[in-house]
Amino acid sequence: MSTRPPVLSAEELRVVFPGRRGAPSARAVDGVDLAIGAGEIVALVGESGCGKSTLARALLGLVEPTSGVVSFGGRPLSYGTRALKEYRRRVQLVLQDPSGSLNPRHTVYEAVAEGLRIHGRGGDERAAVADALAQAGLRPPERFFLRYPHELSGGQRQRVVIAGALVLRPEVIIADEPVASLDASVRGEILALLLRLREELGVAALVVTHDLGLAWNIADRVAVMYLGRIVESGPVEDVLTDARHPYTRALLSVLPESAEPPAILTGEPPDPSRIPQGCRFHIRCPSLTSGEAAGAGVAERCRTEEPELLGGVACHLR
Fold first, then answer.
1. Angle CA 236–239–241, to nearest 5
2. Are 58 and 10 within one domain?
3. Per residue in 266-276, pLDDT tens?
4. Is residue 302 within 8 Å of 288, Cβ to Cβ?
5. N or C: more exposed end of the chain, with fewer CB within 10 A?
6. How far is CA 210 from each of CA 49, 52, 157, 260, rounded to the nearest angstrom?
7. pTM higher than 0.70 for the full model?
8. What DSSP line would sit under 80-102, residue for residue?
């Protein structure tokens, strides 16, 4: 957990989607505890389909949890229309694909001003839009007012999306794969922008990603998610230099700078409607197939008992 006072947190959060035509329900988020401290950047890491985006949507109030509590500033989130509107002003979303986030018929000015108009913010709209664009690195901002998305580069479009979030002066940004669709040359610029926003404005961020290398470059803490649960979490330096969960070690082993041989995980993550008994990772776990778990006397527990998240790791071996 964060050592800073949490601005946004989840406690025992569960999101279950009912199955169709009698099929089993899918446990997309299955008992997650997560806290984001004021001015802190947390990376939420895992493979596609592990529940990261569903957790992000629940934290935004876009999905009401089946059970558990989302709290903002220490107060449980209310799901009334007026309360959610105020909440979403203070907690903003930045999506992966800037082209899909921007209306091609709207100018940059209209795209950034839209949030101000929805939330009925008073004051000088033109000045607020210019300030947000400048903070997002589009200078001079007036030069971009009348441009359309197709006239911008991918990096510039992502900066417009970020400006649209910043114009409401949020306390938290939830960024879902914010650089996945960008060229490598632009990725570093957007990551540096997020770090600068934290330093200059005190904005906290949850960065949802499948890329542990990105987490290393931007995050204070990292939470690794697998099949709906957090399996390892802690300060980014601790987790990424001394990973204790076999899943985290496997993710790290495929990074280009890794000194370890790539760990090949067999098969795909199980269907969240058919989560296996015991440790939900055990059917793909290299420590179980190699005999390490048997040597430690925990192989049977791996197959039959769900490990708790203790000391930042959910693994019978640790």
1. 95
2. yes
3. 778 889 999 99
4. yes
5. N
6. 10, 9, 22, 19
7. yes
8. SHHHHHHHHHHEEEE-S-HHHHS
